[in-house]
Every structure is written in structure tokens, then in C-alpha cells.
Amino acid sequence: MQRRKEWMLNSLGILFVLIFLFPVYWMIITAFKSQSEIFQSTPTFWPKDFQFTSFIDIFKDNVGQYFLNSFMIAGLATILVLVLAVPSAYGLARFKVKGKNPMILLFLVTQMLPATVILTPLFIVFNNLSLLNTYWGPVLTCATLGVPFSVLILRTFFLGIPKELEEAASIDGCGRFRTFIRVIVPISYPSIVVCAAISFFFSWGDLIFSMTFNRNQDLWPLTAGIYNAIGRYGIEWNDLMAFATVSVLPVIVIFVILQKQLVKGLVSGSIK
Questions:
Q1: Which residues are CB-contacts of 227 (< 8 A; sequence separation ≥ 6)?
Q2: Dihedral (CA of 85, 88, 90, 93) sign
Q3: Which residues form the ABC transmembrane type-1 domain (predicted)?
Q4: Domain tally, the chain
Q5: Which domain holds residue 133?
Q6: What is the CATH number of the domain that holds 164?
Q7: What is the Cα Rg of the chain in Å?
Q8: Rounded CA gap, 261 and 128, in Å?
Q9: How do residues 210-249 score in pLDDT, each as one tens digit?
């Protein structure tokens, strides 16, 4: 009976995975199809004749620059989020800070606000600081939204770390900062990886901030390039799907490489 239950749960899990992955599969195989095969009356689940002209076309169309821009924006935003969120979360978890509860509540409120609410105020601020048409506009905006989320996640984890570890490090001669760097950060590595991955994925998928703060298309990320391609290519779905495939590949690669750390960080965070 137990084995039958496990078999049914495993089968159900595999079914759900296939359902969620099917759009990704369809996107990839469409990129390798010809226009005539895409629009034929009977859909094909595997390309009859693999063609790579779609990928050749998009790489001729400045996709390399879009790719570099996405990496710059996502990478800088992720680094900024970690530099600010990790020590902030540790401070809120360990020290008696005046107004700590209202501050945490404010962090929660920021997660409920739609991105469009902050566009106009930030546009005015960035314009006054001459940050429009630079990488720093979308980078700072993505970091602004990513820091509160990461602080909330990491603070919960830091609260579960026994204070005896810090006391032992203090007895061994470590100061507060050295204890944080040598003891707390290594222990928290899985949760930090989770926050870094979520911040990177969020920044990688940014469209509205880059298009609002950067009118120079040479600074646009891949998502903006796809948006451009929709109007430019029209019904050339193989080119559009090739663009989408290239944009999603780094996310898949990062997730595959860091899957153990991501799962460990999510599980340890829930246990804490």
C-alpha cells in the first residue's frame, strides 16, 4: 500500500513537471522550425528539418549587446542587494534596533507595491542625479525592490542560528565583524545563494525599468530586445522563439548549477 502511494505521488509529480516544462520545450523546438512548419494545420512536436537561420538572424541583430546589458544589470543589482541585505538582516536579527518592528513592517509593505508606483518618483530622482540612460537606473531600481525581500528572508535564517556560536568565536578572540565574516556568512551560505538567485532572476527579467530609464537602445537588456522583436518580426515566430530561448538559457544554466544550494537554502530556511 505504501509503495503504491509513493508510486502515485511520483507519477503525479512527474506529470506536473511535464506540464510546467512543456511551454519551455515548445519554445525551444519552435525556434528550430521553419515558418511553414510552424503554421501547418497539424502541429509537429519535433522539427522535421532543423534550421538555425533564426539564431543566425538574431545574433546579427545586436543580441550580443542585449545579452551583455542583461548580465551587467542583473549582476550589479545582485551584488548590491547582497552587500546591503546580508548585514542589514543580521543587524535586525541580532541587535536591539529602535523602530525595528515598524521597519520590518515597512519592508513587508514594499513587497505589496506594484512596480509602476515607483516609476515616476525614481525617474525624477534619476533625472536630477543624471542617472538616466545609464546602467545605474535599472540597477538601483531592481536593488531597491530586491533588498527588502532579501532582508526578510535572511533575517528569519539568522534568528535560527544559535548565539552560542558567536559567543564561542568571541572567546577565541574574534570581534563582531570577524565573527560575522568567518562564522555567520559561511553558515548562511545556502540562504544567501537563494537570495542572490532570486535577485538575479528578477533583474534578468526586468523590462519596464530599463525601457523607462534608458531611451538609448544600446543599453536595453534582452527582454527589451524581445519586445522590439515582436513589432519588428511580426509573425516570424521562429526568430522570436530563438530570441526567447537565448534569453532563458542563462537562467536554466544557473538553476542547474546551483540547484543543490537552492534546495538546501529553501529547506533550511523553512526549518529555521
A1: 207, 211
A2: negative
A3: 67-258
A4: 1
A5: 49-271
A6: 1.10.3720.10
A7: 23
A8: 41
A9: 888 988 888 888 888 777 766 555 567 788 888 888 888 8
